[in-house]
Amino acid sequence: MIVKNTLLFIVLAEILSFLGYYYNLVNLISFFVIIILVLILSLYKLEYGLFVLIAELLIGSFGYLFYFESGGLKISLRLALWLIIISVWLAGIIIKLVKTKKLELNFFHSSYFFYFLFLFIFIAWSVINGFLKNNLLNNVFFDANNWLYFLLIFPIFSVLRADDNLKTVKQIFLTSIGWLSFKTIILAYIFSHNFYFFALDLYLWVRRSGVGEITQVVPGFSRIFMQSHIFVLIGFFILLFYLLKLMVARNDKKKLFISYFLLLALCLSAIIISFSRSFWLGLAVGGLFVWLAATFKLKTNLKKFIIFNLTILATVALSLALTLLIIKFPYPTPADGFNSANLLNDRAVKVANEAGADSRWQLLPKLWQKIKIAPILGQGFGATVTYKSHDPRVLSANSNDDYTTYAFEWGWLDVWLKLGIFGLLAYLILLIKIIADGLKISSSYSLGLVAGLVVLSAVSIFSPYMNHPLGIGYLIITAAMMENLKLLR
Questions:
Q1: 3-state secondary structure of 76
Q2: Beta-carbon contacts of residue 439 (< 8 Å; ≥ 6 apart)
Q3: Pairing relationship of beta strands 221-225 and 73-76 according to DSSP bridges
Q4: pLDDT by position in tens, the chain (length 489)
Q5: Residue closest to 63 by CA, chosen among 50, 72, 54, 51
Q6: Is the CB of residue 424 less than 8 Å from the CB of residue 378?
Q7: Where are the domains of the chain?
Q8: SS3 14
Q9: How far is CA 428 from CA 83, 91, 233, 373, in A?
Q10: Exposed/middle/buried for 387, CB within 10 Å: 0-12, 13-18, 19+?
Q11: What are phi and psi of 73, to 5 degrees?
Q12: Which of 81, 255, 316, 365 has the smallest number of Cβ neighbours within 10 A?
């Protein structure tokens, strides 16, 4: 029931969002209907509203499936949902405080409380430092805005202590990554074939809603990249540990095994189509972690380890076959004319003369120079860096290739620049603590969550996830789930 309802909600939201591209009235009505329904649901039971927020986080990339715009102010659905959940939770706490004269927060009793507290101190310092050092207050506000997502840790810790709610979140997660993967494949099919009458509007909707990016790599193949693909990547490794659990426990659940296997192939196909080197790095790092965990933590015997690796190879083969089938399917006429193997190889090893990769490497020395100005205390939120960018979108908006921004691709360096070295260390220590607990529990569930954090941390070297609601959301949900697992031991 949860899977069906989640899928229905997601598909309906996507259809309405697409219609909202044509008719802004549809966008506005959908926006207000959703937030009113979520408000009612949250007042009835906070977890219901939180489930909608988590589903939106998983599929919405930048959060603009729906939005309200007036006088230059644009409020995303994600921001509206955040405000509702925080407000309802806070109102409940205040009412309870008035009645009982006691302030009881589940998060205060968590083993992660002080780790988060230290990080919060440096986040608060970065806000103050940003207002003191950086002239453009808009930059400070919008830069710090992403970090406010950490406040969801309070309602999340209060809701995810219940096993039933944890199971619901798992089902929402698996349904969402399955939909994202399916949607990616459908988009890849459309943009590798001659759908001229439909493709342009679909492209503009994907771009303007912030759902993702569609970029032609060569004639006949376009990369379909969505920021939310990070959850598909994380889910891939969580599913691998589910499969490993079935093998180790000798469960005779063939239907469940086949379902996980097919979902794995679907997820991997979406990651391939994303053509993201950062995600491919995450695949390599996550794969190494899975092998080490299977050998040393789950103590898989040689026979099952070989079968597990053969399963992974079969997944890779099936995902590649599925990708090729979608791109080269003969109807309607595919815009063919490229060698698939050469295309993958070129993407993996060649970065010269590519606008996105070149801009990222142009940014690195400039970003490092800015970090060295205040490496200990940081520059605060809103700190900007100017560098040469060859990105066509930048060039179209500027008279030259000089680009000044406060948002950077190098995720961990961004954290260092804004929070300082101690803020960066506080963040890393928190991650290490959660990862260490997951390894200590050593269940397939805890190891899957840890694999997600390891992959997320690796991807964040080159992409901004640990300073974005997508990464922050996964981190605090994982911390709450890990706390629950520790209590059950």
A1: strand
A2: 293, 297, 446, 447, 450
A3: unpaired
A4: 788 989 999 999 999 999 998 889 999 999 999 999 999 999 999 999 999 999 999 998 888 999 998 877 889 999 999 999 999 999 999 998 888 877 778 888 889 999 999 999 999 999 999 988 877 778 888 888 899 999 999 999 988 887 888 899 999 999 999 999 999 999 988 888 777 667 778 888 888 888 888 887 776 678 899 999 999 999 999 999 888 888 776 666 778 888 888 999 999 999 999 988 899 999 999 999 998 888 887 777 778 888 888 888 999 999 999 988 888 877 776 666 555 555 555 555 554 445 556 677 888 888 999 999 999 999 999 888 888 776 655 555 565 667 888 888 888 999 999 999 999 999 999 999 999 999 999 888 899 999 999 999 999 999 889 999 999 999 999 999 999 888 766
A5: 54
A6: no
A7: 107-150+351-489, 166-350
A8: helix
A9: 28, 33, 21, 22
A10: buried
A11: -90, 125
A12: 255
Q: What is the rounded CA–CA span in Å between residue 425 and residue 429?
A: 6
Q: Which residue, among 84, 77, 49, 51, has the nearest Cα to 63 in the 3D structure?
A: 77
Q: Which amino acid is at 439?
A: L
Phi, psi of 465 (to 5 degrees): -115, -40
Q: Dihedral, CA atoms, 193, 194, 200, 203, nearest 10 degrees? A: 0
C-alpha to C-alpha distance for 206 and 20, rounded to whole angstroms:
12
- Token pair 């991650």 is found at 431
What amino acid occupies position 93? I
